[in-house]
Amino acid sequence: MAVSVFDLFSIGIGPSSSHTVGPMRAARFFAAHMATDTDGTQLSRVHVELFGSLGLTGKGHGTDKAILLGLLGKRPETLDPDTVDGLIQKVRDGKSLSILGKHPIPFTPETDLTFNRKKSLPFHPNGMIYQAFCGEEKVLERTYYSVGGGFVVDDEAIGQETILPDDRALPFPFRSGDELLKLCTENKMSISQIMLQNECTRKSEEEVRKGLLEIWNVMKECVKRGFRS
């Protein structure tokens, strides 16, 4: 199985991939369902319940903020961290949020976002149930699980082979650090040169370099932001 550097390094809001990035993506998935499966303008409220580890430690990981941002349509890859506090405060003050930034509905975080500290869902400890209502009638419900690394599955995907191995042939395959170093010696190449050739089986060299520079720039901005705080 070939592991890409883009599988190992991804951009997202912190502090946790499983407790922040995953719930944010789940919230955006649900917001998209609300926009396509219901008439968003007729929805009266949304309720989100967090279970297991999310219910117990979600506050400390910013799970509640991540969910509000996801419902607003924000993506962890492109969200400007400097805008987060203002977006959250606007929801809290107005007791309203706009689904995907378009359809405003009443939303009070203290009552519409519940931390269930006593129950876990059966499939995974990071479980979430999202519900949308029209009046008192529940018109949409989805269960999501944040399974680590920012990845999310819904209840329909449980038991299915949703993650398939990447079996493409690599020019320089290896299974250990020793094998990688041996390839470098045999081919008179550096580790970065070996890895670049392997990455180019998925994308063009221009795309690989652009993606790596984007990640590097985000890393540098994180350091600068830390100096300012």
From TrEMBL:
Q: Which UniProt keywords apply?
A: 4Fe-4S, Gluconeogenesis, Iron, Iron-sulfur, Lyase, Metal-binding
Per the database record, which ranges form the Serine dehydratase beta chain domain?
A: 4-156
Metal-binding recorded as keyword: yes
Cofactor(s) the protein requires to work: [4Fe-4S] cluster
**Pfam families in the cross-refs:** SDH_beta
What Gene3D superfamilies does this protein's entry cite? D-3-phosphoglycerate dehydrogenase, domain 3
Alphabetically, which GO biological process terms does the record hold? Answer: gluconeogenesis
An example Gene Ontology molecular-function term: L-serine ammonia-lyase activity
Q: Which PANTHER family match?
A: L-SERINE DEHYDRATASE (PTHR30182), L-SERINE DEHYDRATASE 1 (PTHR30182:SF1)
List the protein's name: Serine dehydratase beta chain domain-containing protein
